[in-house]
């Protein structure tokens, strides 16, 4: 049969996809899903896996078949291969289909990005200040005062906008369970939005090499119920000096604990957080 090799490759490809797609979906690629944004990102990656497996199987099937079918046999070392001419129809297909696939995946990824970065009603603002080698978190209050802590506390299902600032070098704010990460860059304020969806305690990490103490630049985020969060917030002293000490005058900027306009008054009593 003239089309027998094609049929064999199709069968092999279908079997390969039927095996590899389920396997790729059951592998625990990601950490615990603890935010709404993490759910969107994980779904995007699963879509990319489902789209990538058939392409991988197709390429490997053609490669393996070609190695087997067109391998050099004994005595053929001095024989030229048969001339092969182009196939316009095939070239159009393998140009148009990948282009459509890329456009579709890029469009879907863009919708996920816009969804994750969209402003939410009643979102809470948390200022994140990064410096060598630690994070400070401040919560602006309606009365103009500020709560400062070295550990991050967030209410479950509450949209949060983080305003990230760095006082020295580039740092990066990352909570693996939120699947969201953004750099804190000196001189500018970057914005990251997260809606926590799972109670728990998770690590906060700096993922930008920021100096000799980079490996120790860690903190903790506690996701708790809204009522427990309000109780915690009400129990914290306001306008206290930042846990890592007062920033120098050259690093003073609004939103940074201890800075002019940051909502913290130097000389007030400090306490543990």
Describe this structure in words.
This protein is of the alpha+beta class and 273 residues long. It folds into two domains: 4-70 and 90-117; 124-251, Cupredoxins -  blue copper proteins (Immunoglobulin-like). Helices cover 36% and strands 22% of the residues. It is built from four helices and ten strands; from the N terminus they run αααββββββββββα. Strand 6 and strand 7 form a beta hairpin. Helix 1 (4-26) packs antiparallel against helix 2 and helix 2 runs antiparallel to helix 3 (88-117). The longest helix is centred in the first third of the chain and has 34 residues, at 36-69. It is elongated and about 85 Å long. Residues 264-273 have low confidence and may be disordered.
Looking at the overall shape, the CATH architecture of the largest domain is Sandwich
Q: Give me the number of helical elements.
A: 4
Strand order of the largest sheet: 3-2-1-5-8
Low-confidence stretches: 264-273
Shape: elongated
Bin the helical content: 25-40%
- Count of DSSP strands: 10
The overall number of domains is 2
CATH topology of the largest domain: Immunoglobulin-like
The rounded Rg comes to 27 Å
- Biggest sheet architecture: 5 strands, mixed
The percentage of residues in β strands lies in: 15-25%
The first-to-last residue Cα distance is 77 Å
Summing up helix and strand content along with how strands pair, one would put the structural category as alpha+beta
Quickly name the level 1 CATH class of the largest domain. Mainly Beta
